[in-house]
Structures are given as structure tokens and as C-alpha cells.
Design goal:
Elements lengths: L4 H7 L8 E6 L7 H14 L3 E4 L3 H7 L39 H13 L4 E6 L1 H13 L3 E6 L15 H22 L1 E7 L6 H10 L3 E3 L7 H13 L5 E6 L7 H10 L5 E6 L11 H19 L5 E6 L2 E6 H6 L6 H10 L2
Parallel strand pairs: 1-2, 1-3, 3-4, 4-9, 5-7, 5-8, 6-7
Antiparallel strand pairs: 9-10
The protein binds adenosine-5'-triphosphate (ATP) and 6-O-phosphono-beta-D-fructofuranose.
The site of 6-O-phosphono-beta-D-fructofuranose (F6P) has 9 residues, from loops.
Length: 347
């Protein structure tokens, strides 16, 4: 990992030639993807580059499905990204593309890129997207610099991913409302948040919402221990409980956990809420807009400086580049200090 934007820009030989940059969104949509597309377009046009928007991620690359501007030209100019910084989802749409997971799919995409004289790509997505990009660079000699867009915050090479802050806000807002019923009816709520392989969203949501417990894939979920802790809390006068469950918890999601708690004779009346895709929607938070704007610009500048095969991220407020391989071969650990903090708050 290179440590600062200055290091990175001097690392690569400077190249000021204008290039044609393709930008697309891939994997689950995330709030702030539009802000990132806007940043890529504005930063690239300011530097004299041309931007081509690709609809529907890798699927669009295979189908040659390009964003068309008001004049029906396959070019994204500064005005084509007006009024989108505040919009959730992605104007380029996103997809999970099975065909790109085959050798034939990757070769077709590479051939299309050559045919349309695209020199560089900015994929915006999660670790699956970057796994795909790592395959693409084996078959195509253009540059690829990605931006981390996923609500999961499961990517090495960036403290936060674009969309995470908004998703936490949405989940916390929902729990604030559930807490009214939890208190009035003296119930336990199991609230399931997204995160197939990562507990980041669950842990941050639990801390910010004042939940008692977070069940995450990174730490063992011990049902007897949870039941004992809950009954101790009840004895000290606790009337309601919020447990945040990551969908990828090894004991199963919230429904499974509710069953297991009941079998273990948990005394709280329990209800289950699965937040689902509401977490992926909505207007991005200012933090997500800022991150998306910084990283989109940094990705373009890194392309200008000759970078490829890397994801643009932000670590300790510094822009850094991380090889794609690292983003999908290494698991981003949860901060132990936050796990301990939640435990400390839960008494
Ligand atoms: N091993 C692979 N080879 C080629 N392409 C891949 C591979 N893995 C994933 N991809 C491509 O990347 C796309 C996006 O990956 P995936 O569905 O895992 O989402 P993601 O980018 O991890 O985002 P999210 O975190 O929101 O799920 C896949 O639909 C597929 O087209
Ligand atoms: O319903 P979809 O689009 O397949 O996405 C579900 C998955 O995407 C993610 O939200 C990430 O965007 C995961 O946490 C979740 O498992």
C-alpha cells in the first residue's frame, strides 16, 4: 500500500496525455455511487480526458451498453452529471453479471474496450467487482483504477467504503423507531442488517443505536452466553433489548437466532425485523458524498499518473492505492476496540 497521494503520484511516471476513461457501477448499489460518477466525470473533463459511462456494470461492458447523453452521444460530460450528487442508487445502474465470471465473458469485455478505444476504466463496486477487474487486466492492457462502493465496508485499503455511512444512518434511524415499541411492550428486537461476510455494518449500527449486542461473522455467537447476559440485564431493571444481527452471522440471520434464543429459554418476548434493501437506498450522507468526491477525483488523477490494477481508498485521511488482489484475498478485521466498547456499554 502506498502511503499518501503525493507518494503515489510521484511513484508513477507523470503522463499528461488525454485518455478515454470508462466508468461503471457494479455489485450492490450503494448511496454515493452517483457522487463518485460525478466526481470521475468532472475531474476527468477538467484534465482534458473524455468519459464514457457504461450501464449495468460488467454486463454493460459485454453488451456494449453505453450511457447516452442528451444528444444521444456515448459521452458523459460535466453537465450530464448535474443534480445527481444527492441521489441514491446509480444513474448508470448496476448488475451482478454471471457471464463476466467466465473466461469468454472477460475476453468479450476486453475486446469491446479495445474496439471503443477506451484507455482506462474506473469500476465502482465491492470486492467481487475488483476480483473481476483483476481478471480483466490479464486480458486488456488499459488501466483500471477502482473506487470502493458498497455498504458492507468490507474492503482492505480504505477505512470506509462509499455507502457505508448512509447505510449505518438508515439502520440507526430504523432502530430508534423500533426502540419505541421495544420499550412500550418490554420486548427484545432482533434487527438483521446486511453483511454477507462482514460485521462492520452490524457493529457500527449497534454502537450508534445503543444496542446491547451485535452478532457478527467475525466473532463467535454463543447462545447460552447471550441468554445469561440478557437475564442479568433483566434483573438489573432492563425492560427492552436491541440485538443487531449481521445477515452473515455464523448462527444464521435474525430469524434463526430468534428460534435459538427461544429454545435456550430466553425470557424476553421477541420480535424480528429484517431491514433488507432499505439499507442500500436513500440520499447519501455528507460523509459519503465527500468520500465519493475525493476518491473519484483521486482515481482519475491516479490514471493520469499511470496507475493500474489498484483500488483508490482513504486510510487515516490520506488517499492510497491498494492492489485489487488485496481487496478480495484479505478479510478486513473489525476493530477490537469497538467490539470491546460495545461490551462495555452493554451493562
Ligand atoms: N471471480 C470473478 N471473476 C470475474 N468476475 C467476477 C468475479 N467475482 C465477481 N465478479 C464480477 O463482479 C460482479 C460484482 O461482484 P459481487 O456481486 O460480488 O458484488 P460486489 O462488487 O462485491 O459488491 P457488494 O459488496 O455490494 O456485494 C459480479 O457480478 C461479477 O460480474
Ligand atoms: O440482493 P442483492 O442485490 O443480491 O444483494 C445482497 C447483498 O448485497 C450486499 O448488500 C452488499 O451490497 C450484501 O450485504 C448483501 O448480502
Amino acid at each position: 500500500m502506498l502511503s499518501s497521494s503525493c507518494d503515489i503520484l510521484s511513484w508513477f511516471s507523470k503522463r499528461d496525455l488525454a485518455v478515454r476513461i470508462g466508468v461503471f457501477c457494479s455489485g450492490g448499489d450503494a448511496p454515493g455511487m452517483n457522487a463518485c460518477v460525478r466526481s470521475v466525470v468532472r475531474s476527468a473533463t477538467a484534465a482534458g480526458h473524455e468519459v464514457v459511462g457504461i450501464n449495468r456494470g460488467y454486463q454493460g461492458l459485454i453488451d456494449q451498453n453505453f450511457f447516452l447523453n442528451a444528444k444521444q452521444q456515448p459521452i458523459m460530460g460535466a453537465r450530464d452529471v448535474s443534480n445527481i450528487i444527492q441521489r441514491g442508487g446509480t444513474i448508470l445502474r448496476s448488475a451482478r453479471c454471471q457471464r463476466f465470471m467466465t473466461d469468454e465473458g472477460v475476453r468479450t469485455a476486453a475486446e469491446n474496450l479495445r474496439q471503443h478505444k477506451i484507455d482506462a476504466l474506473v469500476p465502482i463496486g465491492g470486492n467481487g467487482t475488483f476480483r473481476g477487474s483483476a481478471e480483466l487486466v490479464k486480458h486488456w492492457d488499459g488501466q483500471v483504477v477502482g473506487c470502493p462502493g458498497t455498504i458492507d465496508n468490507d474492503l482492505i485499503g480504505t477505512d470506509f467504503t462509499i455507502g457505508f455511512s448512509t447505510a449505518v444512518e438508515t439502520a440507526v434511524d430504523a432502530i430508534d423507531k423500533l426502540r419505541d415499541t421495544a420499550e412500550s411492550h418490554e420486548r427484545l428486537f432482533l434487527v438483521e442488517v446486511m453483511g454477507r461476510h462482514s460485521g462492520y455494518l452490524a457493529l457500527y449500527t449497534a454502537l450508534a443505536a445503543g444496542a446491547e449486542i451485535a452478532c457478527v461473522p467475525e466473532t463467535p455467537t454463543e447462545i447460552p452466553g447471550i441468554v445469561a447476559h440478557l437475564s442479568q440485564l433483566q434483573q438489573t431493571g432492563k425492560k427492552s433489548i436491541i440485538v443487531v444481527v449481521a445477515e452473515g452471522d455464523e448462527e444464521g440471520g435474525a430469524l434463526m437466532l430468534a428460534e435459538k434464543l427461544q429454545r435456550a429459554e430466553c425470557t424476553f418476548a421477541t420480535r424480528t425485523v429484517i431491514l433488507g434493501h432499505v439499507q442500500r437506498g436513500g440520499s447519501p450522507s455528507p460523509d459519503d458524498r465527500m468520500l465519493a468526491t475525493r476518491l473519484g477525483d483521486f482515481a482519475v488523477k491516479s490514471i493520469g499518473a499511470g496507475a493500474t490494477g489498484v483500488m483508490a481508498g482513504e486510510v487515516n485521511s490520506q488517499c492510497v492505492l491498494t492492489p485489487f488482489e488485496k481487496t478480495f484475498t484479505e478479510h478486513k478485521q473489525l476493530p477490537q476496540a469497538l467490539i470491546d466498547l460495545l461490551e462495555c456499554m452493554s451493562n
